[in-house]
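Hey, why these numbers?
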Amino acid sequence: MSMQQQIEEKLAAGIECKHLNVVNESHMHSAGTESHFKVIVVSEEFAGKRLLQRHREINEILKDELANHIHALAIHTYTPDEFAEHNGEAPDSPNCMGGSKSA
């Protein structure tokens, strides 16, 4: 199973998502590894939660992957209403400043 599939499965099992998109952005940053991802998670469960609480929830679900496999994870969490306000789009991920880039 690819890292992208593993992330998708764990998030789908851990949060009741209205929308889930896991984007493998490794090709923009590193030499052939699955290490850079962007996740967009839309859930009613985020209503009333601050951004930090939402991100902690994602980090907890993916704690093993973050500790052992993922170099960078851009997290975008929304309620359905917030996602609609953003026209169903999340911002682009920032440029990687880490050491896994190829020379």
The mean pLDDT is 87.
